[in-house]
Structures are given as structure tokens and as C-alpha cells.
Amino acid sequence: MDKRRALSLAVAATATFAALWAYVTQPRATPRHRPVVPIQDGQTIDFSGGRPVIKDSAADKASMDAALKQIDEATTSVTFPAEPAPTPAPKK
Q1: Helix, strand, or coil here: 47?
Q2: What is the pLDDT of residues 6-59, one digit of tens each?
Q3: Contacts of 44 (CB under 8 A, 6+ apart)
């Protein structure tokens, strides 16, 4: 094998090894798991600080009651019609 070809193979092998080494040694991001917080009726969960905080204040209850009232008012006139009965295909 001539020197030029051997040098090309050596450079290619070095570049491949460097790329693999960079891939293998890069830091991996660890998944962030949020703690499991049970949903409790009438209480809110605040994640704004990075951790779940269960709140049960009068202001939160008032805003939840107002939101539920708005939802009830918005959905009173919503109806879904029944699907028409399918007509059987004519037999041949």
C-alpha cells in the first residue's frame, strides 16, 4: 500500500474515532420527573415555583366557581344531533 493511501485511511480512522468519542462522551440530559400530586376537589395546584403547591384559598375558590359558572352557561345551548339511521344498500 502506498504512503498516500495509508495516510488517507489513518486520517479517516482518526476522524471517525473523534466523532464517535465526542458522541459517546457528551453529557446526557436526565428526564425531569414531576412528583405525582393527587387532584383534590376544590383545590388548585400551582407549578409556577417549579414544585407543586396545593392551594386552597378563598380567591382560588371564587375564581374556580366563576369559571365553572361560565362553562355551564356556555354549554347550556350545545346539543349534538343524533346520527341518521343508515339506509341499507339495495341488493343486486
Answers
A1: coil
A2: 999 999 999 999 999 999 888 876 666 777 888 888 788 888 888 888 888 899
A3: 54, 55, 56, 60, 64
The model's pTM is: 0.41
Would you give the DSSP letter of residue 1? Answer: -
Neighbour tally for 37: CB within 10 Å:
12
The answer to whether residues 16 and 2 touch, using CB atoms and an 8 Å cutoff, is no
| Element (DSSP H or E) covering residue 53 | strand 53-55
Q: In terms of Cα–Cα distance, which of 64, 46, 47, 63 is closest to 55?
A: 46
Strand pairing category for 53-55 and 44-46: antiparallel
**What b/e string do you get for 63-77 counting C-beta neighbours within 10 Å, with b at 16 or more?**
eeeeeeeeeeeeeee
> What distance in Å separates the CA atoms of residue 60 and residue 53, rounded to the nearest whole number?
13
Q: Locate the domains of the chain by residue range.
A: 46-75
